[in-house]
Design goal:
Elements: E1 4-9, H1 17-30, E2 35-40, H2 42-49, H3 53-69, E3 77-81, H4 86-96, H5 101-105, H6 108-116, H7 125-128, H8 130-140, E4 145-148, H9 153-170, E5 178-181, H10 209-217, H11 238-246, H12 248-260, H13 265-291, H14 294-323
Parallel strand pairs: 1-2, 2-3, 4-5
Helix pairs in contact: 3-13, 4-8, 4-14, 8-9, 10-13, 11-12, 11-13
């Protein structure tokens, strides 16, 4: 039997290049090697966007379309919406009974997320306890591996700690999951910071070509380079980082010309924009087709939920029996 992989993505806005490089392209590769379960984490979205109900449905549909357009195949993996399975919420509640509050308060992303989203009121139990919900998502499917970036490793370790604590109390119910690190953990945004919807510095997968060109044109480059013939420092330039990922065959030449002062930032940005437009063209074509058939997308999510429930129901029953609830 194939090893099982589980991962999810939040519908808190349009998916962007950081999501594509950091997660989705990796998922597309994994679906050919593992028994994969990928879900739209709409319950997780409520931990920070509980007051944005007007856009949630739109974002959920957009994420589903993006995932399918980027190459996830429902014949090779299970794609579903988290809230379609009440088992996730129920197991979350059960795990929360044995999870010390101090464990949640020490998670690094707890404080960093509060700072990143300083305009939001994140003093809720849901936000503090979202790593427990994440643990429930993973343990529900008894996943062998969870593909994550470097910044998510503390969450996987916390999941293992919750797993061990539950098993110590109630018997060997859950296996401990392992992490699968992504090749590119972060991607810079248009302002030089980490590409994030919270910073409003993203290039969305659904952005049309003209929008991509516009966003690339305002990207931060080498701050020490004032004139075109000034020697550049590509190692500190976001544009060069993009070349290494999306145009690796051009990266060395671009770096040499930048360092020699024979290539200006404007020319560099224009070429990169066309590379990105070409890179995203297949996704744009698939998005257009899927957007014209919303019933097909909904049908894929419903079928995925049905397939996921076959495992989730058995796991929840096992956990309940272990706790003496059944």
């Amino acid at each position: 039997m194939k090893k099982r992989v589980l991962s999810g993505i939040q519908p808190t806005g349009k998916l962007h290049l950081g999501n594509l490089i950091g997660a989705i392209e990796n998922w597309v590769k994994l679906q050919d090697k593992y028994d994969c379960y990928f879900f739209i984490a709409d319950l997780h979205a409520l931990t920070t966007a509980y007051d944005d109900k007007d856009h949630l449905k739109e974002y959920i549909n957009g994420v589903a379309v993006d995932l399918l357009a980027a190459g996830l195949d429902p014949k090779k993996c299970v794609i579903f919406k988290q809230s379609d399975l009440s088992e996730h919420s129920e197991l979350h509640l059960m795990l929360s009974m044995v999870t010390p509050v101090s464990w949640l308060e020490r998670v690094p992303t707890y404080k960093s997320k509060i700072e990143e989203m300083s305009g939001k009121d994140l003093g809720s139990y849901g936000f503090l306890g979202y790593p427990v919900l994440q643990a429930a998502d993973i343990l529900m499917y008894k996943a062998d591996y969870v593909p994550v970036g470097q910044d998510q490793l503390p969450h996987i370790e916390l999941t293992r700690e919750i797993c061990r604590r539950f098993n110590n109390f109630f018997g060997n119910v859950f296996p401990e999951p392992k992490d699968l690190l992504t090749e590119f953990p972060t991607l810079p945004g248009t302002d030089g910071r980490k590409m994030s919807k919270s910073y409003n510095n993203t290039i969305a997968l659904s952005d049309p070509p003209e929008e991509i060109r516009k966003k690339i044109s305002i990207m931060v480059t080498d701050p020490a380079r004032v004139k075109k013939d000034d020697p550049g420092h590509p190692e500190v330039c976001s544009i060069y980082y993009f070349y290494k990922i999306f145009g690796p065959d051009r990266a060395d030449q671009v770096a040499q010309e930048c360092q020699a002062g024979s290539r200006g930032c404007v020319a560099c940005k224009k070429e990169l924009a066309e590379i990105l437009v070409k890179y995203l063209t297949p996704i744009h074509k698939q998005r257009e087709q899927l957007s014209q058939d919303p019933q097909k997308v909904e049908s894929i999510l419903q079928d995925g939920a049905k397939r996921a429930r076959e495992i989730a129901g058995k796991t929840l029953l096992h956990a309940k029996q272990a706790m003496g609830l059944v």
